[in-house]
């Protein structure tokens, strides 16, 4: 942290989670575990009456496959 309270002098604009050239390459966060995964690695499930994106087939198996 700098003396004037700023954490950095300049910042690159945008988000690290921006969509790539195709819709399938974009990332989303899992409603259950919160990790960002490619949309192609997710499914939607009804949770509390709404469709939410979650890891497929499960968060534990997706983590094992990624790591």
Task: List the keywords.
two-stranded antiparallel ribbon, alpha+beta, about 10% helix, about 70 residues, about 25% strand, two-stranded antiparallel sheet
Short note summarizing the structure:
The chain has a domain at 24-66. It is elongated. The protein starts with 26 loop residues before the first strand and ends with a helix.
What would the average pLDDT be, to the nearest integer? 81
Number of helices: 1
Percent strand? 25-35%
Cα-based radius of gyration, to the nearest Å:
16 Å
| Helical content band | 10-25%
Low confidence ranges: none
H/E series: EEEEH
> Quaternary state, please?
single chain
The beta-strand count equals: 4
What does this structure look like?
The protein has 67 residues and is α+β, with helices and mostly antiparallel strands. It has a domain at 24-66. 12% of the residues lie in helices and 27% in strands. The chain has one helix and four strands; from the N terminus they run ββββα. It has a two-stranded antiparallel sheet with strand order 1-2. Strands 3-4 form a two-stranded antiparallel sheet. The longest helix is centred in the C-terminal third of the chain and has 8 residues, at 59-66. The chain is elongated. The two termini are 33 Å apart. The relative contact order is 0.16. The mean pLDDT is 81.
